[in-house]
Amino acid sequence: MDSTLSGATSTARRRRRLTNRIKESVHDLNVQLTLLNHQVGAHLDLRDADLECLDLVSRYGPMGPTALARRAGLHPATLTGVLDRLERGGWVIRTPNPSDRRAILVQVIKEKETEIAYLLSGLSHAMDDVCAEYDDAELVMIADFLLRSTKAGRIATDELTED
Q: Which residue numbers delimit the HTH marR-type domain (predicted)?
């Protein structure tokens, strides 16, 4: 066999192995973060969907229930139950939408966010330590990889939603 062809085959095989290793690591990360979120929810007496919706409103600001249901991938009737639980627990309030008085906005009660931040502080500190091991150029590449991976996940989710 030609050594150039053999080298190309070896390079392709190595690339497939690395790509598979990355996919497995992303899957492992997803599992670990799901377990962490489940533990955070258990400490706060929140269901997984409740914590997810709370996170979305906290990250993206006040939003209407329809927009929240879409972002969370929940049926509007399911979201109503989530919002009722979050409101009863003192996590969110529903306020009139200033640009459309017939609509409401869901807002997180800021003081409650500190409870979640405290429970996630271990991860935050550990991630600071992980990031400290990389130089700026590597961090830029990792951030780009994560943004592109998030986009790939969003596309895959949208495709399944359309089915």
A: 15-151
140: in domain: no
CATH number at residue 41: 1.10.10.10
Alpha carbon of 140 to those of 24, 135, 148: distances in Å?
22, 9, 12
- Whole-model pTM? 0.82
Are 55 and 91 spatial neighbours (Cβ–Cβ below 8 Å)?
Answer: no
* Sequence-ordered list of residues with C-beta below 8 angstroms from that of 82, at least 6 positions apart, any chain: 47, 49, 50, 53, 72, 74
DSSP state of 69: H
Tell me whether residue 157 is in a domain: no
Task: For residues 66 and 55, give the distance between their C-alpha atoms in angstroms, rounded to a whole number.
Answer: 16
